[in-house]
């Protein structure tokens, strides 16, 4: 078939690889962000081909040169110096099981640096000739909009070039000028094909891999998180000894960089409660939001305990309390201790309505993220659907049959529920039941949307059908965040009459 892609045996292919990554604010904001560029030679050859057409390819990066311009930096770009260890790891080949544009498996050295392996994954991803679609996801009022496009040039079943562009845009829905855009561009272009070593005579992929130099284990194809170790990071106690003199010279706008923030997190993770509390009390007013966000990000028990003692929701400035709640809600992998702290600050406390609203939405986000990490004690089982009878209404005209059933899949059953998650969910539901004003109901529905617990779908449906316009819209928005498998194909669309006479249709996204 002319569409079957393949690399010929006994041939060494040399490609030119170029990478450009840019991090900056969304359009319309200032100033420009940082960028990184890299170029390298990529060599590929076929080691084995089985009767079904699956090929084992060796991919090797050589002569990598990189430059960067950090965010906010002035002057010419800086060359990135690579030490001998990094160069040695870069030149170690990876191996892929490949079938006409589909990567079936990736093999490499699992002991090498995650950053180096991720770079190799990026190169290998260009051989995955499959289309990707962009989607928009909203979490806690944050829109995440990823998109990608790729251009492949193939001649005589051989890949001539690949151009792949990808972007991820994160922005606050209510503050559209606040956001960040990460864009990348990868290019692979065939330079030459020359005679190379003959293919192995082994009959299986495993035997061919065993015959290559080094140890090669199966690796995940998707990139893994990378955390850079902190060098020259003092202890918090040592930092506090010179804090007063530092404070007089500190420009907070320049200090609040990504590097400085990571440095603070490292300090706070190993600090004792009394030292963190001392820092919070001694920090100048303009520096407090920075320290609070760092303490939340650290998520150590002493740091959270210090925050608990320091923050008074009945007295502290509203802006600082909202900083804490936003930092908690945006935490990518929150702990139950962080959820417990937020619950403690919200339970029975007198506070500004705006702060309580922010706290309730943050509470939903924390519950949802804990469940995504399988830390909430909720068992989700699509094998036990729950039938929820409800009237089918369309512009107020009954249909036949008079009742339809919505089958909920993945209904949550509590085996050994995490008490914090259970308490958090009950707090949101109780607030929704007792809401007297429309905006209060909307706030709690937003919280349920962030939590994404299937057991709350009946509640959301009720408000989507019976609530006033703003409440129904919030319930619909929450329902749209559930995955399609939570609802069977018996009811693919839920039609809801809105007071303004517009028929709204909830389309559960199939992702």
TrEMBL record:
| SUPFAM superfamilies reported in the protein's UniProt record | Lipovitellin-phosvitin complex, beta-sheet shell regions, Lipovitellin-phosvitin complex, superhelical domain
Q: Name the GO cellular-component terms.
A: basolateral plasma membrane; endoplasmic reticulum; Golgi apparatus
Q: Which residues cross the membrane?
A: none
UniProt keyword annotations, A-Z: Signal
- Entry keyword Ribonucleoprotein: no
PROSITE patterns recorded: VITELLOGENIN (PS51211)
Domain Vitellogenin residues, every copy: 7-511
Any single Pfam family the record assigns to this protein: Vitellogenin_N
In its UniProt entry, the species of origin is given as: Bambusicola thoracicus (Chinese bamboo-partridge)
Q: Which Gene3D superfamilies match?
A: Lipovitellin, beta-sheet shell regions, chain A, Vitellinogen, superhelical
Q: Known InterPro entries for this protein?
A: Lipid_transp_b-sht_shell, Lipovitellin_superhlx_dom, MTTP, Vitellinogen_b-sht_N, Vitellogenin_N
| Molecular function per GO | phospholipid transporter activity
The protein's name = Vitellogenin domain-containing protein
Name any Gene Ontology BP term.
lipoprotein metabolic process
């Amino acid at each position: 078939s002319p569409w079957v892609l393949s690399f010929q045996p006994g041939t060494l292919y040399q490609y030119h690889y170029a990478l450009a990554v840019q991090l900056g604010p969304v359009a319309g904001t200032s100033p420009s962000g940082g960028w990184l560029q890299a170029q390298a030679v990529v060599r590929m050859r076929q080691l084995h081909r089985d009767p079904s057409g699956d090929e084992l390819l060796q991919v090797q990066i050589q002569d990598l040169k990189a430059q960067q311009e950090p965010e906010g930096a002035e002057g010419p770009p800086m060359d990135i110096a690579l030490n001998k260890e990094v160069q040695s790891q870069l030149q170690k080949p990876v191996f892929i099981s490949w079938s006409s544009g589909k990567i079936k498996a990736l093999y490499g050295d699992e002991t090498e640096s995650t950053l180096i392996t991720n770079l190799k994954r990026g190169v290998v991803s260009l051989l995955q000739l499959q289309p990707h679609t962009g989607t928009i996801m909203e979490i806690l009022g944050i829109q995440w909009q990823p998109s990608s496009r790729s251009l492949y040039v193939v001649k005589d079943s051989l890949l001539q070039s690949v151009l792949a562009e990808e972007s991820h845009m994160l922005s606050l829905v209510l503050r559209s000028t606040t956001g960040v855009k990460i864009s990348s561009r990868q290019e692979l272009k065939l330079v030459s094909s020359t005679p190379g070593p003959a293919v192995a005579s082994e009959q299986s992929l495993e035997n061919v891999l065993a015959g290559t130099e080094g140890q090669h284990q199966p690796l995940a194809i998707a990139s893994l998180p990378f955390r850079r170790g902190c060098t020259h990071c003092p202890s918090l106690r040592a930092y506090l000894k010179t804090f007063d003199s530092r404070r007089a010279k500190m420009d907070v706008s320049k200090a609040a960089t990504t590097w400085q923030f990571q440095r603070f997190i490292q300090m706070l993770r190993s600090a004792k409660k009394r030292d963190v509390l001392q820092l919070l009390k001694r920090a100048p007013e303009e520096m407090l939001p920075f320290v609070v966000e760092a303490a939340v990000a650290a998520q150590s028990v002493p740091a959270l305990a210090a925050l608990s003692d320091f923050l008074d929701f009945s007295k502290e400035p509203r802006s600082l309390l909202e900083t804490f709640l936003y930092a908690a809600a945006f935490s990518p992998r929150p702990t139950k201790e962080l959820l417990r702290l937020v619950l403690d600050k919200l339970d029975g406390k007198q506070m500004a309505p705006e702060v309580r609203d922010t706290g309730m939405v943050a509470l939903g986000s924390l519950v949802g993220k804990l469940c995504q990490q399988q830390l909430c004690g909720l068992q989700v089982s699509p094998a036990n659907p729950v039938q929820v009878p409800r009237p089918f209404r369309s512009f107020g005209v009954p249909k036949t049959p008079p009742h339809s059933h919505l089958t909920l899949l993945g209904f949550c059953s509590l085996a050994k529920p995490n008490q914090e998650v259970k308490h958090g969910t009950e707090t949101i539901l109780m607030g929704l039941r007792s809401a007297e004003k429309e905006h209060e109901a909307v706030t709690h529905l937003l919280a349920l949307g962030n939590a994404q617990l299937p057991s709350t779908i009946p509640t959301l449906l009720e408000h989507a059908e019976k609530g006033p316009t703003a409440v129904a819209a919030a319930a619909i928005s929450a329902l749209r965040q559930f995955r399609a498998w939570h609802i069977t194909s018996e009811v693919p669309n839920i039609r809801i009459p809105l007071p303004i006479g517009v028929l709204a249709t909830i389309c559960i996204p199939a992702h």
